[in-house]
Amino acid sequence: MMLELQSKGCHNIGFVSPTHFVPQMARGILIAAENGLKLPIVYNTNAYDSVEVLKLLDGIVDIYLPDLKYAENDAGFTFSKVRGYTTFARLAIKEMFRQTDDKLIFDENGLLQKGLLVRLLVLPNDLAGIEENLRWIRDELSPKAAISLMAQYYATNKVATDERYILLSRRISEREWFSAIEILEELGMEEGFMQEYESASYYYRPDFTDAEKPFKDIRDFRL
Fold first, then answer.
1. Which end of the chain has a smaller Cβ tally under 10 Å, C or N?
2. Are 98 and 59 a contacting pair, CB within 8 Å?
């Protein structure tokens, strides 16, 4: 399948939340590489990963694309029902950084070939702890570690209707978004991308028909 995708002109091979099938994934990549696979391998994850597993992928994965969802373990348990999220995610991202360092490598067409890009989704009422996570990235990894700052959060399912999740029951405001950008600049982060707030503010509403759902491209901008 990977070789077929390569033959069709795909730019990379992306595995999403693949921790639970890493042995099969690594074996498949080996077989594909022996038969001519040359595309970058992307590991797209919520970062709730095992460091031991990530160490096995050293030299196999080219691009790590982890989320760093919360700056506090309590928030991870309250809103995502996982224990020790921040602790484990930071350990995992440290291992990803060890493997890739802080340099993004692009090809002649501007397509990413190797590196680490940490995604930070701004949440309403600062439930993600953007400043704390950015400070951790700057101080524990590098000011040059690449960041993808995202504004696309919207409430769905239980968080849109259950009073227990009232703090997550709305989109972020423009003030919250620009506050996150100011923190990014104040901390001197040097590399990364951020969404355009207006494009990210278009989101799905269940009362739209398929033909009426608003759509606008979400573009990334180099800082």
1. N
2. no
Query: Model pTM?
Result: 0.87
Q: Which two tokens stand for residue 61?
A: 């994965």
Structure tokens at 60: 């196999």
Could you identify the residue written with the tokens 């999220």?
85
Instruction: Please work out, in degrees rounded to the nearest 5, the angle formed at the alpha carbon of residue 32 by the alpha carbons of 26 and 35.
Output: 145
Could you give the CA distance from residue 174 to residue 178 in angstroms, rounded to a whole number?
6
Residue 103 is which amino acid?
K
Bridge partners of 115? 63
Tokens of 95: 């291992």
pLDDT at residue number 196: 79
CA distance 141 to 207: 44
Query: Other CB atoms closer than 10 Å to residue 174's CB: what's the count?
Result: 12
Terminal alpha carbon distance of the chain:
36
Distance CA 79, CA 69 (A): 10
| Domains in the chain with CATH codes | 2-222 (3.80.30.10)
Using one digit for the tens of pLDDT, what is the confidence trace for 67-113? 999 999 999 999 999 999 999 999 999 999 999 999 999 999 999 99
- Could you give the 3-state DSSP secondary structure of residue 221? strand
DSSP 3-state assignment of 132?
helix
Q: List the structure tokens of 53.
A: 């597993």
Phi, psi of 153 (to 5 degrees): -60, 135
